[in-house]
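sanity check this chain:
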Amino acid sequence: MNKIYVIGIGPGAYEQLTIKAANALTESDVIIGYTVYVDLVKEHFAGKEFLTTPMKKEVDRCVLAFEEAQKGRVVSMICSGDAGVYGMAGLMYEVGVNYADVELEIIPGVTAALGGAAVLGAPLIHDFCLISLSDLLTPWEKIEARLIASAQADFVACLYNPSSKKRHDYLEKACDLMLQYKSGDTVCGIVGNIAREGESMKILTLAELKTTTVDMFTTVFIGNSQTKVIDGKMVTPRGYRNV
C-alpha cells in the first residue's frame, strides 16, 4: 500500500515537532508543503526531496502528494501547527477518494493555540474556542455569528489569522462585536511568531486589543470573565480551589 503521512510540524521550532512526526519525516522520500513551512524543516532533513506550492494551491499540493505516493514513494504532506486544525488533513481525505490505493496517516502537531498559550501562561485552562478571522473560505457573516456566540457563552476565544493587508481592520471589528457582551477590562493576550525567530508576547485588555496592530503571524487570545493576570501571565482558572 502506498503511504502518505499528513503531519503537523508545530508552530515553527524543531524542538516542538513530535517524535512521531520527526520519525515519519525521516522515513519519507519526499516532503511536500507550502513554501514557508518547508523552509522550517528543510535543514533538519537533509537529503530528502522537497516539493512546494504557493498559497491558494492547496488542491494542487494534495494531488501532487498522491501522485508521488503512487510512484511507490513514502510521502509527507506537512502543515504548520496541527494538520487537523485549519490544516490539510480534511482536504487530503477529500482528494483521496480518487486514490484508493494510497493510505493516509495523520500525525498531530502543536497548534498555535497551544504553543501561544504556553508563552502567555495558562489562558486555555477552561472551555475555549478557535475562530479564524480569514474570510477567504468562510463568509464574514458566519465569522461574526461565531464571535458573538463565543462572547455570549463566555468562552475564552483564540483567534487565528487576525489581520492581513486586505483585512487590516478585522481584529478591530471582532473586538467591537465581543465588547457587546464582554467587559473592556477582559484580559487578553497576543503572541507573535510562536517558536520562531522574533517571538513576542503582550498581555492587554480587550479595549486595548481593539486598537492594537497585529499580522498573520500573530495569535490572539481573548479571556473569559474569570481570566486574570498572575505574575505577568494570562491565567484562566478552572475552579479547582473551589471544589
About this structure: The first strand starts at residue 2 and ends at 8. The chain has a mean pLDDT of 94. Residues 112-235 form a domain with the Methyltransferase, Cobalt-precorrin-4 Transmethylase; Domain 2 fold (CATH 3.30.950.10). The radius of gyration is 19 Å.
